[in-house]
Amino acid sequence: MAGAVRLEPVDERNLEPLLSVAAAEAEPDDVMPPVDAPAGWSLARREAFRDFHRASFGGLDGPTRTQMYAILAAGEVVGMVRMTRCDEPATVETGMWLGRSARGQGLGAVALRELLSAAAAAGMQTVVAETTPDNAGALSVLRKCGAKLREDGAKVRAEMCLDSALPAL
Ligand SMILES: CC(C)(COP(=O)(O)OP(=O)(O)OC[C@H]1O[C@@H](n2cnc3c(N)ncnc32)[C@H](O)[C@@H]1OP(=O)(O)O)[C@@H](O)C(=O)NCCC(=O)NCCS
Description:
The structure is a single chain. The chain has 169 residues and is α+β, with helices and mostly antiparallel strands. The chain contains five helices and seven strands, in the order βαααβββαβαββ. The protein has helices at 12-25, 28-31, 43-54, 107-121, 136-144; strands spanning 5-9, 66-73, 76-85, 91-98, 126-131, 148-152, 155-161. It has a seven-stranded mixed β-sheet, with helices on both faces. Coenzyme A binds at residues 30, 95-98, 103-109, 131, 135-138, 140-141.
């Protein structure tokens, strides 16, 4: 399955499938910023999810400086990976999530590698990420993509240099 992963820019065609996966298989906090709405996947939170993604339809040069991609495995939407321009030149910050049923199969590392290719194609040289020391899945995916990891208080900061060769998966 990991061989059949591809990224599609998030747009109106894949937004509802992405919301369906998020609502069925992810926690709101893993997939969108906090909103003042009833707990769980209330109607208000679903609408906020749509607005959050639509705000980035303009991509890296749009108002949020963010390109979001739906992650597809075997043709099905299973999660999202994004890159956001940083103030440092040729640098983007990444973040991602997968629906629960897609986790633990190696898809995260394949999707992040696709994101690194897209970032390089967009002229980026460095991709950074931030996670927490207890997020074993995220740390493993970052290591598999050659990230240098640095503990910084309660955070772990990762840096991937796009002109370095990626480790074998
Ligand atoms: C982080 C995430 C993208 C990792 O993607 P993934 O495809 O599941 O990663 P992998 O299949 O390569 O698994 C990575 C490692 O985590 C472990 N793992 C994955 N899911 C796990 C789970 N639910 N519980 C325990 N371990 C888990 C795997 O066994 C694997 O270990 P290994 O590298 O020693 O083999 C995914 O787990 C996820 O979407 N998590 C929720 C959102 C999130 O935390 N995003 C990152 C924010 S920084």
